Each structure stands twice: as structure tokens, then as C-alpha cells.
## 1
Amino acid sequence: MKQIPCLLFSLNKELFGIDVENVLRVINLEKLMKVPKAPDFIAGAISLEGNVIPVVDLAKKIALGETVIDKRTKVIILEVHHHEDVIDVGVLIDEVIDVITIQESKLLPPVLERMGFDTQTLDGMYKVEEDFYMILNATKVFEKELAVLI
């Protein structure tokens, strides 16, 4: 039975999780550089230890509206793998909730697709107490961008 360590977070009042394997770190959003002519889901870029990391408005990327940036906004720095390539990308979130270990066998299939939702970016839904978390798949979220890099 596979166990997946998961970072739980909130974004635009919705609950999400992402495999910790993809998470390099979580930082406070301090200074966001604007990137001219970037796709609209790119919020900007940050400088982290001498590297420029693109920052994605995850809410826009997955069609959940737009992230309202305030002093509590955090950035999850993700390492996304695609074949032999690896990209580092930041995603805006509202807050980190917890880190838990989930049982892969307890992941519920994302039933929302029957109602017209695009669930291609999800590995499934996971229930923690009374709340359901949408478990994102980092590679699927950035598949189109990764394909462009090749």
C-alpha cells in the first residue's frame, strides 16, 4: 500500500494537496518581478538563491479565479519532472495547512469530471476529517509548459 506525503494548502477558499516529493520549500512572497509578454497565469518571477523562478498564479492556471495577493500569500517552490527535464516553478497559495501522509488506496477518483470539470490535473480527492482536498499532480498541472521546453 503506497503512502504519499502530502502538503495541504488553501487557495481561493478551496482545499488542495500536492505530493511533497515535488515541493522544494514554501516561502513568503516578498518581491514579485513582472514578466513582460508572459502568459496571463504567470504572476511574475522571484529571485531565489541567484536563480530566477517563474511564479504561477495557480488559481488562474487551474481556472479557479485569481489569487488575491496580500501579506500572508505564500509561494510553494515546486520541482516538476518531465522525462529527463526538471523545472523549478513557484505557485501562489493562500496558506499552508498541514503535511500529512495519505494512503494511495484511499484517494477517491475525481468525480467532478462528470459535471464538466477538467480533472486532468488531479490525482484524486482525499478526505481529512470533514474536508475534501483536491490532490494536484504537479507534472499534469504544468504539462503544456513542460512540453514547450523540450
## 2
Amino acid sequence: MRPIFARLARDVPAMLGLGIVVFVLLLAVLGPWIAPYPGDASASHLLRRLKPPSLDYPFGTDNLGRDIFSRVILGARGALQIALAVVVASMLIGVPLGLLAGYRSGWLSETIMRITDVVLAIPQLVLALALAQLLSPSLESAMLALSLTYWPFFTRIVYAETRRLSGSLFVDALRGVGAGTSRIVFLHILPNALSPVIVRATIGLGFTILVAAVLGFLGMGATPPAPDWGLAIAESRTYLPKAWWYAAFPGVAILITVMGFNLLGDGLRDLVDPRIRRSR
């Protein structure tokens, strides 16, 4: 484990991404205690509406006089909750299907992979928008729509790894000593297939935050007065470009968070992919 962290520490972009991710996690956990105005982040204060950034309000105030700095901090928890819930749900659907399709052959495997290919052929954002449109606008609807569109990525990865590993000598040896299918799949194949799954999950966290913000921007995700980054950008459109801070700071929060997860995911991919390591 220590050599892995030593190699990761030499990757400057990956360490930058790790720092950003840890910072956002701390904001999500400690947000209510860090935010300068946590109690009235959802309350209206019309006498201080649309004030520019200042010492009292570092990110300015919105159209209802709420402190944008506090709402950006508090929005980190909601963004990470959505991302974690979507990625975990997608893994719970996609990983077992990939194991089943990869280890077994026949009509069941073909059916799973053809459905996977059909879902992958449709851009995730387009499919998520279509599903969210069919549901009532809410955070739960956005999470369900994203989960139903992201699981094929895990299915495809696990399917490829299971196909590769099922033909290995150690699997043949396990079959020779009478090991059952469940033992082979869950105790031997799955642990060896987890590295690309972890990389995909890390990158997927950032992408899910971005897509969830798009859904919030279009009114298909979080609903007012939730401190959601995408919703904040949507509410700011009426006041641009005069109140530029209203959209700028939630947008920067999305940019930095997504960039952090992508940099960390790229570093983990370089770490676990032997072909990339050999090419360096």
C-alpha cells in the first residue's frame, strides 16, 4: 500500500485533485459550522439583496439577500450526497450485471450486454433529462434519473475484466479443485476487477456533480430554497451581467470540484493501468 501512495505522491496533478477533493469533503462535513450565516442561508433579507462582494459578504448576496458564500459552502454537502448516492447505486446495478454477463455465456449474457450497449449509445445527459422530465422535479428524481443512466459504464468495465480474468490460470486451478461459481466470482474475480471500477467511480463522482448541476439549472433537480449550485446559476440569469457574482461563484465551485475529481481519477487510472506505467 505504501508504494502505491508513494507513486501517487509523485503525480502532481493527482495530488492537486486529491487536495481539492479533501477540501470539498471537509466543506461538506463542516459546512454548517464554517458558513458565516448558516441559520439564515434560506431566509429572505430583501434590504441587502444583490449586494456585491464585500468583507461582510465575500461572495455577495443573491436576489433574496441571502449570503452566497454560505450557500456555496452548504451546497457542497448536497452535491456530494447526490454524487455518492448515484455512483453507489450505479455500482450496485452495474457490477453484478457485469460479473454475470462476463462469467456466463449464452442468451442471458448477450441480453445484458445488448441492453448495456443501447443505453451507452444514448448520451447520458440527454437520457437523464428525458427520465427527469417524466418524473416530478425533485432531488430524488434527479438521483434516480442519473442512476438509471450511469450503471452501464460499470457493467461494461466489469464485463471486460471478468472475461479477461475468467480465462486465467488461477481460475482454471480453482475450477480444478472444485471451487463453486460464487466463490470464484466474488472472492477471486471481483477483487481483481475492482481497480478500474474505482477509477471509473472517482471520475464519475465529478461528472455526476456536473450533470446534477445541469438538471438543477433546468429545474429538474433540487428545488428552492435548497442551496444547490446549479439552481443558484439558474436563478441568477435574470440579474446578469450586473450581478455577475450571483452566477460566478457557484459556477467556480462546480468547476473546481469537477476538476478535482477528474485529476484524481486520471492519477488513479495511470497508477492502476500497467500499459500506461510501461509507456512512461
## 3
Amino acid sequence: MRFSLPSFLRRRGLPEELLETSESKIMHISDTPDNIYSFILNLIEKSRPKYIIHTGDLVDNIKLERRPELKDRYKKRVQELLDILENSNATVYIVPGNEDDPEILKKFSRKAKIVKPGGIIEIEGIRLALAHEPCELKNNEPIDFALYGHNFKVIEKGLNGILNINFILPQSKRVIKVKYPDGTNFERGYRVMRGL
């Protein structure tokens, strides 16, 4: 069955193989500013992942670690993203980031599984190490992929959720990368992307 993609997804170059595969999909996102929530919703609706993993900083434009007075705004926006993720029919895993409040995530989460940084989960035969920051990952565990965010660092077996939205196809262990919308890094607070 073919359908027409919304223009912003066509501009993003959404790979046809992502839409046409019959394999289950794991969607990995990280450090999401609230202005891309509609993009995330549309991407979920089109790609229909079976699993969604968010590796922290759910409302990345609200720097809660440095601005605790924004907690009420954070609560409202994090609830909006949790509704998007949890209403998707996917199994959802969340690793709290440095800009998140783990207690608020636990309180507002209805179905998402909160995973401690450095935790390892297994999905359909592949082992995934999950963290917000790459330094939280354990090096001595056998894994297929390490999923993380927080900065632009690239590590061995790593999929950085800041650089791309990563889709993992567990049966073939293929990775399909989708670019974030233009301006996402600016909204995250990154004025200059050094080292890229």
C-alpha cells in the first residue's frame, strides 16, 4: 500500500526502505526540543515503530538542570511528549538525561519503562546498552548497539541520537538514519556544531 508523505517528511528525505520493510523497527531519539514534537508524531505515524527508545533530555530546550524555576513548563511539555510516545502502541523505554527530572518522568509516565543510564535491554534478540551520556555506558558487556545522546561524540557500536533519529531493524541489524528538522540544534541550544 502506497501513500503520500506530508511535504516536510519528503523534504527530510524519509527513506522508502523505512516505510516498506516488514521488519519490526526500533526508533531511537534523544535530546528533543519541544518544537519538533509534531515532527516526531508524524514520523511515528508513518514509520510505525514497534519500540521507541528516548535517551534523555525529553524537553531539551528547557535546561532544567540549570533553570529549575522552569519545572512547571517542563512538566507540561514532557507530558505532551509522553502522550505522543505512549499513544503510539509502541513499547517505550526512556533513559533520563541531565536536563530531566526522573521523578516527574515516573509520575507522568503511564506505560514507558524508565531505564537507568548504563542499563542493557534485549529486544528481539539484540542487546542494546542505553545511556544519556556516552561515559555512562559500560564497556565490558557484550552488546549489538550502544544508544545515547547528550553531545556529538561518536563511539564504537554507538548510535548517537543527537546526530540522527536512528531506526534499528532487529532481524537484519540494519540501521536507517533520519535527519532531524532544520533548526533542531539551534533549539537544543547549540549555536555552533564543533567537530562535525
## 4
Amino acid sequence: MSALPNCPKCNSEYTYEDGSMLVCPMCAHEWSPAAEAEAAEANVIRDANGNILADGDTVTVIKDLKVKGSSSAIKQGTKVKGIRLVHDSANGHDIDCKIDGFGAMSLKSEFVKKI
């Protein structure tokens, strides 16, 4: 007998398979194991090279970035230490950080690479 995962909604251990779906008899929640794996993969934030980023990583900016409201730009090669990931950002900026000379700001992960 294969070990089925607990229900993601109520954490009940009495789940069962119904075709390609998993069902919880306690709360009647139905889910697809494949969709659950895709959702977990969707929450992963990757840098420009495809490396997975984590809170506290150090990254390097890969191109000059204009800063709104400032006459200067963040230069290519700028090192950013101790990043914090933001998963539900409405504007696409998924990294919060502090950059020397600029202060607190948000960056898009597509413009950085992990060191």
C-alpha cells in the first residue's frame, strides 16, 4: 500500500484515490497531486540563470538599472547582500533588499544572478 499525503486543507490522514484525484473524507476536499506539485514549483523564485533564490542570499545585478526618482542608476556588478523574497508582489518585483548608496528597494529576479 502506498502512503498517500495528508489533506492539505484539514491535514487528515484518511485520504484516498478516486481516479487521478485525491479525496479527503473528513472535509470533502479534492485535489490533484500533479497540480499540487506545480503550485509548489510556481512559488520558487529563480535568478536570471535559473538558480533558485532563498532569503539571505547574496546576488549581483546583471545590467544597469534606472532608479525611478533618482538621477543615478544601479550599475552592473553591484553586489546585494541579504535579500528577502516576496512571493505575492503585484508589480513583479520579487526581491526586497538594501543597496548601499540607494537604500531600501525592490528588484526583479530576472535582473540578478546568485553568487
